[in-house]
């Protein structure tokens, strides 16, 4: 632990209570989905608590965390201090062009419902460009299924999100799956996790024609 982490006034680490609650159920699924060795880019890494936890338990994977916010990246780097399989956090916009490094998996936790729909479109499009064939796009969060919420708490959460920003909201799983299919991904594999959230994974079946793998 660094001196700044010993001093709460200078500690850059942010904390999200939900990350502590859901990190182990998510980790259990990542153990099944991800290869023993490879590279993973996490989009919208938040505080960094997830990536630090996953990296500590999946030492064969090299993680690239991202965050658009300077303070967020500082928090990620502080949480990951001492972990040799976590790279320094970089800025990344889901809707922009990503660095064309090839990954085994793209991980995105609790983002698509607190961002405009365009962020989901960019996430899926870019994931198809940076994943190796058979690579995994892994999403976690609340989803609607067949146009309906899976729990009353999710309906209330959705209303709160849309009240804060009309472009936000819990997404329909079928809409996300349709976008993924257009970009060469297979059908989603869906696992129900605590707190009425889903872990949804897509395998890249067809590499986009414009992409060159080196």
Structure in a nutshell:
The chain is of the alpha/beta class and 214 residues long.
Structure description:
This protein is an alpha/beta fold. It has one domain (3-111, 119-203): Rossmann fold (3-Layer(aba) Sandwich). 36% of the residues lie in helices and 22% in strands. It has 7 helices and 9 strands, in the order ααβαβαβαβββαβαββ. The chain has helices at residues 3-6, 17-33, 49-57, 70-79, 117-130, 152-164, 173-182; strands at residues 38-43, 61-65, 103-109, 131-141, 143-145, 148-149, 171-172, 189-193, 197-203. The strands form 2 sheets. It has a 6-stranded mixed sheet, sandwiched between helices. α2 (17-33) packs parallel to α3 (49-57). The chain is globular. The termini are far apart. 38% of the residues are buried. The mean pLDDT is 94.
Notable features of this structure?
214 residues, alpha/beta, Rossmann fold, six-stranded mixed beta sheet, three-stranded mixed beta sheet, 22% strand, globular
- How far the N terminus sits from the C terminus, by CA atoms, comes to 39 Å
- Widest sheet: strand order? 2-1-3-4-9-8
| Strand element count | 9
Question: Percent helix among the residues?
Answer: 25-40%
SSE string, helices as H and strands as E: HHEHEHEHEEEHEHEE
Number of separate structural domains: 1
How much of the sequence lies in strands comes to 15-25%
């Amino acid at each position: 632990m660094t001196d700044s982490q010993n001093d709460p006034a200078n500690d850059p680490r942010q904390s999200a209570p939900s990350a502590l609650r859901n990190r182990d159920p998510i980790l259990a699924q990542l153990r099944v989905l991800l290869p023993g060795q490879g590279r993973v880019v996490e989009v919208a890494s938040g505080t960094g608590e997830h990536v630090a936890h996953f990296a500590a338990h999946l030492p064969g994977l090299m993680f690239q965390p991202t965050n658009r916010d300077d303070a967020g990246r500082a928090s990620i780097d502080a949480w990951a201090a001492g972990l040799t399989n976590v790279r320094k956090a970089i800025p990344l916009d889901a809707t922009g062009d990503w660095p064309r490094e090839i990954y085994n998996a793209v991980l995105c936790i609790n983002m698509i419902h607190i961002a405009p729909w365009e962020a989901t479109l960019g996430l899926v499009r870019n994931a198809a460009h940076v994943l190796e064939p058979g690579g995994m796009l892994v999403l976690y969060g609340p989803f609607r299924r067949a146009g309906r919420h899976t729990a009353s708490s999710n309906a209330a959460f959705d209303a709160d999100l849309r009240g804060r920003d009309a472009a936000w909201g819990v997404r329909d799983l079928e809409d996300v799956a349709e976008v993924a299919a257009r970009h060469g991904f297979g059908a989603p594999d869906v696992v129900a996790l605590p707190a009425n959230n889903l872990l949804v994974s897509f395998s890249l079946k067809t590499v986009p024609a414009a992409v060159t793998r080196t």
